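Long-time lurker. I teach an intro course on protein structure, and each term I like to show students one example going from raw sequence to a predicted 3D structure in token notation. This year I'd like something fresh instead of my usual example. Would anyone be willing to generate the tokens for the chain below so I can use it in lecture? Attribution to the forum is fine with me.
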Amino acid sequence: MSRSLNNVLELQKYIDVNTPIIYINDFDFARVDEIIEGVVGRSKIVEWNHATGCTDFRTRRSVGYGVKTDLVSFLREIYTLEIDDDFPVEEKFIVLRDIQDEIEKPEVKTLLALIAQRELYDRRFSVIVIIVSSVNHVPEEIAPYVTFLEISRPDEQQINSLINEHIETNDYHNFKESDRDLLMPSLKGLTAYEIDRILDMAMSNNGTLTASDKDMILKQKKMMVRKSGLLELVDSNVPIEHIGGLDDLKEYLKKKANVFQNLAVALKFGVSIPKGVFLVGMPGCGKSLCAKAAASTFGVPLLKLDMGSMMGKYVGQSEENLRKAIKIAEAAAPCILWIDEIEKAFSGVNGQSDAVLTRMFGNFLSWMQEKTSTVYVIATANNADALPPELKRKGRFDEIFCVNLPNEKEREKIFEVHLKKLADKDCMKAYSFEKDLNRLAKVTSGFNGADIEAVVHDAVEKCFLIGTKALNSNEILQIVKNTVSITKSCKKQIDAMQKAFSESSFRDATTGNITSSKAN
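-- Reply from a regular --
Happy to contribute to a lecture. Here you go:
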């Protein structure tokens, strides 16, 4: 497994500036140990772990004649280390592996803080603590002394090296360079360990490595998302034709899907990787449905990010959860990352928001601006007024669409979509609804898509309960008459939102026109 030069250089930099505690949050211990080994060279290095206690880092043998040393005793011995003034200081490193269950103990926190302070202020003492853990957990008491080292994922050159190793080891005869180009986007974002395992699985499946293994790679990525617990894998089996109206937005998504599905060719041509789209508009008008339909159109998994689930109780945990969620999305790429009701997370960031939220917002913006992965972000918001302008400017998203209440023609299409879904049901056997679509659209002014869907469902249920043999326009019209649409139930909020849309320069999801000439 090739060592990442960037990680080695970054770790060396932290050591050179006398960082007392370096925290590496990664599960691939073999790769992390290789990076540490590349920096410490011949310096003295010892490890503590739950299994063997005080351990020789290089030989993996327990130190202390088989007597398992507890962490407190180990740290106390390090802190009280006596140094002879007649000899030069020898740089030492200690690796603490998976100590998340121990690190909250008062003795452990205090000893780590004392070791860090002695490293900073005692020139005769030179001990760097490296915490390696698959769980990110830093108590507030030692947070000022801790610096995180983020292990980068393999780049294209390293992925190519891993592929070449498997080709040579397994003597693949049918491998083509064109297969490499098609597999590369799917392998990006994975760790070297995960790539190794996937390439092994490809070999065990069909005895070779070809572009046909792409589906298997995506299946493994879906399993990885489910195990993370930070992102929700959403069923996206929604054809884009099931969206009534929003013609310009649907056409836009189809074009982006064409780029995604031919990404290798598009990149060679000079096309940039699409970043994402921001959908702002009325509730119940199809924003969430668009995210699901986009995933079906792109032919990629749909991952849903709940910003509320990112918040943690420990120092740095919220920011780390967001970084992990982004890492998982990138590992699952190509995919769509759906952030629903983003205004609930980032509204008022430039006002009285807390420091944690501000840092999370900054991390998210930086990632959106600089990302080169095939993670297509779809953010939805009912009200973008309170969102900071940094989020809405070009460079974060490719385009911002305004999804407004459906017009008469769109309401007709929405009725058609929902009635067609019932085509094979008994309620539709004696009902030719096409002749009624225009009349239904006219009487539902002010209804959103969710209102119309509810009308159809309620009408079907009523016909079943009263024993009517088939659905008919009279029953639907009666339900419409008794339905309180969103424009009536939330009149003040809807009026305020429509006013905000009229004063903002968003692209209309139906016509493609700009909603206002005013600056955003």
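Some talking points for your students: The first strand starts at residue 21 and ends at 25. Residues 449-466 form the longest helix (18 residues).
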